[in-house]
């Protein structure tokens, strides 16, 4: 983690500012902005740790992060994967004083850490602003819930097809994307074994549904993958 003495982003161009100032006056938003810390996280670094105190509202400007939950048994489950720009740290803050999951950089990320006390002060004066931020925070939970539903009803083929399509549609937004998700992470996201992932990806490749080009995965047949995702 690197704290930047030079601003990574000018506050006037920030998506969070643009959203906020639709509801609150700029003079009210500016004090919170001045106390915000801009940080760079390298791939693999922990941004939030499960069980740690929730002291900041996080806004992801750039990069890809994973939300994961570690069970008492030691097993790890990826709830969802998110790309910026997006409010990513709000769900913890609205409901609990501790982080209910971990947030990890899957590639280099630029993040704004907004002091929670500054945010609460602004929110108390502007209830409509709270509702807008909750709506933004719930976006992450929506993807997590849909993923859980898919896992509950699909076999391994359907789960992995769903994850591949999700990464295309919501994270990389391209049929050809650099596969920054490891096989282990893919298994944690699809709730299956590492061996299941390797075998299924090999099968998809043999059937002409996907192809690998170095570190890139190319989706060749979106329609068939969608059918597999739906039918499991």
Q: What descriptive keywords fit this protein?
A:
five-stranded antiparallel sheet, 46% helix, four-stranded antiparallel sheet, 24% strand, Arc Repressor Mutant, subunit A, alpha+beta, 232 residues, 2 domains, Jelly Rolls
Overview of the molecule:
The protein has helices at 15-20, 26-34, 90-95, 116-125, 127-153, 156-172, 183-190, 194-206, 222-231; strands spanning 2-3, 37-41, 46-48, 56-62, 64-70, 76-83, 86-87, 102-105, 109-115, 176-178, 210-213, 216-219. It is of the alpha+beta class. The protein folds into two domains: 11-149, Jelly Rolls, CATH 2.60.120.10; 154-231, Winged helix-like DNA-binding domain superfamily/Winged helix DNA-binding domain (Arc Repressor Mutant, subunit A, Orthogonal Bundle). The strands form three sheets. The protein has a five-stranded antiparallel beta sheet. A four-stranded antiparallel beta sheet has the order 3-8-5-6. Strand 5 and strand 6 (76-83) form a beta hairpin. The model has no long low-confidence stretch (mean pLDDT 82).
CATH architecture grouping of the largest domain:
Sandwich
What's the total helix number?
9
- Please identify the structural class as seen in this structure: alpha+beta
Beta-strand percent range: 15-25%
Average pLDDT, rounded to a whole number, is 82
**For the largest beta sheet, what order do the strands appear in spatially?**
1-2-9-4-7
CATH superfamily of the largest domain: Jelly Rolls
Largest sheet descriptor: 5 strands, antiparallel
Q: Fill in the CATH topology of the largest domain.
A: Jelly Rolls
Radius of gyration: 19 Å
How would the global form be characterised?
A: elongated
Strand elements, count? 12
Low-confidence stretches: none
The topology string of helices and strands comes to: EHHEEEEEEHEEHHHEHHEEH
